[in-house]
Amino acid sequence: MPLPVDAHPPESVRPGTLTVPEDAVGVHVTKSPTPVTSDSSDGEATAATPPPAPSAPVDVAAAATSAASGKADEVRELEMQAPPRCQLEDFTPFARCHLWKLMMSFYDRQGVESWAQGIVPHFITSNTFIAKRYSNVLRAYFRDAMRPGSASPVDPSQPFYIVELGAGSGKFSFYFLKALAQMESVLDFPLSNIRYIMTDFTEQNFNFWKTHPALAPFVKRGIVDFAIFDATTDTELRLYSSGQVIRPGELANPLGLMANYLFDTLYHDLFQVDGGVLKEGLVSVGSKRAEEPDPLDPEIIKRLNNIFKYEQIDETYYGETRPHCNNILKWYHEYFDPASSGATILVPIGAISAIERLAALSKNGLVALSGDKGNNNPDHFRGVSDPHIAVHGSFSVMVNYHAIGVYFASRGGFALHSPQEEASLKVSAFVLPANAVGENEMVSSAMTEVYGDGLDRTCAKRSLQFPHLTTAFEDDIVSFGPNDFFVMQKSTKEDAEAPSLKAVLALMKLSGWDPDVFYKFRDVLLDQSPTAAAKLKQDVMYGIPLVWKNYYALDKEKDVAFEIGRLYYGLHEYDSALAYYTLSAQEMGKHHVTSHNMGLCHYSKKQLELSATCFEEAYALNRSYQKAATWLQRVRKELGIVQVDGTTTPAQTTITGLNGDHQSGNLGAQQVSLSMPDHGNDKTSAHGPPQ
To answer: Over the range 339-365, which residues count as b (16 or more CB within 10 Å of their CB) and which as e?
Structure first.
């Protein structure tokens, strides 16, 4: 068990950390860590100190008195010089510290706006490509599970529940469900018996899903349900639509689990192996401000000032009721021997606890897919240091997928990891077969097969019972997976000066016609499609409707329908352009540029009355929008030179409010371009600048 805090010597505090002496009574401002300026020969960081003064004989008694006085003066001087630090919490085990309360507060207060406003990055785990790859892996699992003698048999007459932890915006859920629906005819398990449960701990996200039109068809079919579920504490699922309550041991089939960009936000334990000694990390959470009136204000995350220290523990840290978690510690304690440089290890105990509680719902095991920023190679943990905390609106840490794999292996299951080291997104699959042991039980082999190099061999051996799953993971995740796709689209956008239309179409096709990919490369499509060869134009025309079928309303800064309308206009498909401009107005609200472009479509179709109506609306929405005013004059002039009751009526129209002047409808020599509709730069007030 952990030693009491006051039993540790001062050197247990992280090297380079300034501590206030015990006799410094009345010190109200906690000191920030001392700057580290150099490394000592043994590799430990050392604080900057002035060179020693020349020695001289001193009176011992006077020196003692002077030292006591000098100590107090030093404390006062440090108090004056050090930047302020508000201590929000004294040293606490990392998994129970105040940081995780700030995390919950951030997502609870922000809700779906975290994704809608781009505060939290999400494209890498919320696109059509990753959803298709995940669905392929699940399909392969069904093939294995339906085989005679399967290690995880499924009953097609009973529901198969898939729980998505931390569904967030619901965008991945939508794409995954669409991918499953598209392969319904070849699924070995009936789609009608799949129950996809979107969960999150905050009611804001829950309310967003319930009313989202893209999810409605799946809700109507009974495939989708929702639940407020706190992954850190809850033990049962209370489903919203069906009213069903799922308790431990009630599910006949294995449980499916999806978790993307979640495990890095659940609480973690922090450990070090230093000189063969196993230690627990504790943290004093603080802020760079002197005071924090609201300790749960998520803005504190941007000004964190934390201090770490480490205390010796043993391999039974998690107690007798959690032997598999203790096996994780034993694995690392043995792997990083005393002669090594030591290691700093984050154990995603929040994720493991959630897996434990969800796995308990089923009598026949679990299959999980998770993508996050993380590591699955224990050699990356070498070195003794404090954990890196990445701040991006909220904060996150690196997920130790290797530790989760040890946990599954300890229970008789296995893990599939991608060997790619350089990756923004690591995706792993985990399986607990039907004969897996409970979280409180030990495997008969007592873990001897999974220590050291035996872990990889054991996982490989056990995975042979799931040949289709293993092959699909290799094909869809390892060979060219979600991280590779993310890198490709990002590189095409940022590294290529002018990608060709062919390249962009190939990328969009690879993505599965993802709307975000379309939006990123809309300028290439708009610039090159009108002059492309006929066959290439036909390919563009084929893909546009597929992009819209994948549209999921979320980002208020991306008017996808408007951009599709512009593309159709450039291809002289005016009816289609009008249809998407209408959708834009419905989705994003009326805007003068949208109305103006609709006017151009009607004009191109020689529908002058409708054209005039649209230009009038554009001008009414923005009286300073000169383009609409100019076009309105032109159309009114043309409308005036028509046959009315057999006579010709000249145009005599006047528009008021143009730059404060009255202007005649006679355009004179003024020229108006019909080449393309307005590109939308004037839409910033409503939809933000193009991205």
So the answer is: eeebbbbbbbbbbbbbbbbbbbbbebb
Phi, psi dihedral angles at 264 (to 5 degrees)? -70, -10
Q: pLDDT tens digits, residue range 84-98?
A: 889 999 999 999 999
Residue in the block written with tokens 């599709």: 564
β-pair type (36-39, 45-47): antiparallel
Using an 8 Å Cβ cutoff, are 139 and 183 in contact?
yes
> Whole-angstrom Cα distance, residue 271 to residue 595?
60
| Three-state DSSP class for residue 534 | helix
Give the model's pLDDT for residue 571.
98
Per-domain residue ranges for the chain?
A: 12-48+60-83, 495-687
- Cα distances from 125 to residues 134, 210, 388, 390, 421, in angstroms, run 11, 21, 22, 18, 18
Which range is least confidently modeled, 21-30, 340-349, 486-495, 562-571?
21-30
For residue 215 the two structure tokens come to 């999810």
pLDDT above 50 (res 584): yes
pTM of the model: 0.81
Separation of CA 262 from chain center: 7
The residue that leads in pLDDT, 353 or 27, is 353
The stretch 105-128 carries a mean pLDDT of 74
Q: For residue 198, which of 176, 226, 174, 240 has the smallest C-alpha distance?
A: 226
Return the H-helix or E-strand segment holding 87.
strand 86-87
Instruction: Using alpha carbons, list the distances in angstroms from residue 28 to 74, 87, 267.
Output: 15, 10, 30
Work out the angle between the directed axes of helices 626-640 and 608-621 (0-180°, nearest 10): 150
* Confidence at residue 69, expressed as pLDDT on a 0 to 100 scale: 54
- Dist. CA 227–CA 233, nearest whole Å: 14
Q: What is the mean pLDDT of the chain?
A: 83
How far from each other are the two terminal CA atoms of the chain, in whole angstroms? 54
Q: Which of 661, 634, 639 is nearest to 650 (CA)?
A: 639
Distance of CA 280 to the CA centre of its chain: 28
Buried b vs exposed e over 68-82: b needs ≥16 C-beta within 10 Å? eeeeeeebeebbeeb
Q: What is the pLDDT of residues 443-452, one digit of tens each?
A: 555 455 777 7
The one-character DSSP state at 251 is B
Phi, psi dihedral angles at 278 (to 5 degrees): -90, 125
- The SS3 assignment for 435 reads coil
Residue 273: pLDDT band by 50, 70, 90 thresholds? very high
**pLDDT beyond 90 at 476:** yes
| CATH fold of 495-687 | 1.25.40
Q: Give the model confidence (pLDDT) of 149-184 as tens digits.
A: 999 999 999 999 999 999 999 999 999 999 999 999
In sequence order, the 6+-apart residues with CB closer than 8 A to the CB of 255 are 161, 162, 163, 358, 359, 361, 362, 365, 366, 367
Determine the 3-state secondary structure of 72 from DSSP.
Answer: helix
